[in-house]
From TrEMBL:
Gene3D superfamilies: P-loop containing nucleotide triphosphate hydrolases (3.40.50.300). InterPro entries: AAA+_ATPase (IPR003593), ABC_AA/LPS_Transport (IPR051120), ABC_transporter-like_ATP-bd (IPR003439), BCA_ABC_TP_C (IPR032823), P-loop_NTPase (IPR027417). The lineage of its organism: Bacteria, Pseudomonadati, Thermodesulfobacteriota, Desulfovibrionia, Desulfovibrionales. CDD domains: ABC_Mj1267_LivG_branched. PANTHER family: ABC TRANSPORTER ATP-BINDING PROTEIN, CONSERVED COMPONENT OF ABC TRANSPORTER FOR NATURAL AMINO ACIDS-RELATED. Keywords: ATP-binding, Nucleotide-binding, Transport. This is Branched-chain amino acid transport system ATP-binding protein. It comes from the Bacteria. One of its GO terms (molecular function) is ATP binding.
Length: 258
């Protein structure tokens, strides 16, 4: 099977610090693939390299069989890669609905002139976008809050809104950077079921960074483990759980990866 995302020898240094060094792995279509590792291991840097926000120092990254190095992040997004951020990035001064609508409008193909004049084709498109945005909000349980300001949402709901906004781009690959951060245990379990449901519903592939090890072990088909920027192990959850390098990386605490 052709992989949807493939990394070969990917490295990135910041001055003298090697944040990511010679990392390679492939993600297959439909997989939920986890990226774990201790603090500062290079996980978010790797997401930034994959989504084009940070240029690589060396290596190759291909998405859907195309080399994406040097392609601007919005173009990579347009190819079908969407992401969320560790520090939630919403348009906080905009409504919940507009947060989901904005990326859809960006990708909608209407002539600027007909938009400005409010011509019928454009109005019909606006309606379709609004309906689709409301549908996505319904999916994440936020339809009743469509008119609220994004900044007024509690933390867990802001995380869900970020996911709805990412889905608005109709991605093939969804990158989730610590989506369970700040959630309680019940919310984490809910999120896990939600991500599985999203995969099926949208025919998605998911790459997820997560610190909560029980969540990733239960959720992911395969995992890659980073430590000091290096890939120290990859495989199915059971293989990773029993890998001595992984146990050592988590300070020798076998319970941390149990
Ligand atoms: N823009 C930057 N400039 C300099 N150093 C950076 C930059 N971005 C990341 N780093 C460094 O690269 C290393 C990897 O950081 P990164 O945020 O990718 O790790 P992480 O695994 O995502 O950590 P965490 O789990 O704490 O979020 C860290 O030592 C960090 O300080």
């Amino acid at each position: 099977m052709n992989s949807i995302l493939s990394l070969e020898g990917v490295s990135r240094s910041f001055g003298g610090l090697m944040a990511v060094g010679d990392v390679g792995f492939s993600v297959q279509p439909g997989e939920i693939f986890g990226l774990i590792g201790p603090n500062g291991a290079g996980k978010t840097t790797l997401f930034n390299l994959i989504s084009g926000l940070t240029p690589v120092s060396a290596g190759r990254i291909s998405f859907l069989g195309k080399d994406i190095l040097g392609i601007a992040p919005h173009k990579v997004a347009g190819m079908g890669m969407a992401r969320t951020f560790q520090n939630i990035r919403l348009f906080s001064g905009m409504s919940v609905l507009d947060n989901v609508r904005a990326p859809m409008q960006t990708f909608a193909r209407t002539g600027l002139l007909s938009d400005l004049l409010g011509l019928p084709a454009s109005r019909a498109q606006e309606r379709r976008i609004r309906d689709k945005a409301l549908e996505l909000l319904g999916l994440v349980g936020l339809e009743s809050k469509a008119r609220d300001l994004a900044s007024s949402l509690p933390y867990g709901e802001r995380r869900r809104l970020e996911i709805a906004r990412a889905l608005a781009l109709r991605p093939k690959l969804l990158l989730l950077d610590e989506p369970a951060a700040g959630l309680n245990l019940a919310e984490k379990a809910e999120l896990s079921a939600f991500i599985r449901d999203l995969r099926t519903r949208f025919d998605l592939t998911v790459l997820i960074i997560e610190h909560h090890v029980p969540l990733v072990m239960g959720l992911c088909d395969r995992l890659a483990v980073l430590n000091f920027g290096r890939l120290i192990c990859q495989g199915k959850p059971d293989e990773v759980r029993n890998d001595q390098c992984v146990i050592d990386a988590y300070l020798g605490d076998s319970h941390a990866v149990a």
